[in-house]
């Protein structure tokens, strides 16, 4: 058992016969009335997002979820295949449990979320940033940099991200996996 004082991003709880993860939370103390905590929760089994308000001090049941490091091997019609870094056991995971599958390249390390009691796979978390090579983008036109103009670029994994005009083909860039946006060039 935990209370609203223990809330933090990524905390997993059992609610309505489902496992939910806290995406974001905000403690609110209005001038009149009792304090409360406004949260945004994401279901780890269905992917549904829910806004919920808890009274301050309310008790919740936490879920034991392990993050085990796995290496992405390959994808085929059976799903995405990962290998446990410690036991070398391979597991297939269906695409619906991956948020940004198009940003994963072979050999990349990811965290697989596993429910401790049932050993069910709940999802896959990529690192916050990945470094990928641009395989194709239109050349930028000199003098076109007065505004923050963006152009599409295709990455080595097949994903398309919007990049600034000065970024060219065959350049390594850092991509934010949380929203799939360009972050910076890699030196």
CATH architecture field of the largest domain: Roll
| Helix content estimate | under 10%
Helix-strand sequence:
EEEEEEEEEEEEEEEE
Number of helices: 0
How does the major sheet shape up? Answer: 6 strands, antiparallel
Shape: flat
Mean pLDDT: 89
- Give the end-to-end Cα distance, rounded to a whole number of Å: 47 Å
Strand order of the largest sheet: 1-6-2-3-4-5
Number of strands: 16
Unreliable stretches covering 5 or more consecutive residues: none
Count up the domains.
3
Q: By helix and strand content, what is the structural category?
A: mainly beta
At CATH level 3, the topology of the largest domain is SH3 type barrels
Q: In CATH's first tier, which class of the largest domain applies?
A: Mainly Beta
Cα Rg: 20 Å
- In terms of quaternary structure, the protein is single chain
Strand content: over 45%
Please tell me about this protein's structure.
The chain is flat and about 60 Å long. A six-stranded antiparallel beta sheet has the order 1-6-2-3-4-5, with no helix packed on it. The protein has strands at residues 2-3, 12-15, 18-28, 36-43, 49-55, 59-62, 65-76, 79-84, 90-93, 109-115, 121-125, 129-137, 150-155, 160-164, 172-176, 181-185. The protein is built from no helices and 16 strands. The protein has three domains: 2-62, Roll (SH3 type barrels), CATH 2.30.30.30; 65-125, Beta Barrel (OB fold (Dihydrolipoamide Acetyltransferase, E2P)); 129-185, Beta Barrel (OB fold (Dihydrolipoamide Acetyltransferase, E2P)). The chain is 0% helix and 53% strand. With 187 residues, the protein is an all-beta fold. The model has no long low-confidence stretch (mean pLDDT 89). Keywords: Cytoplasm, Elongation factor, Protein biosynthesis.
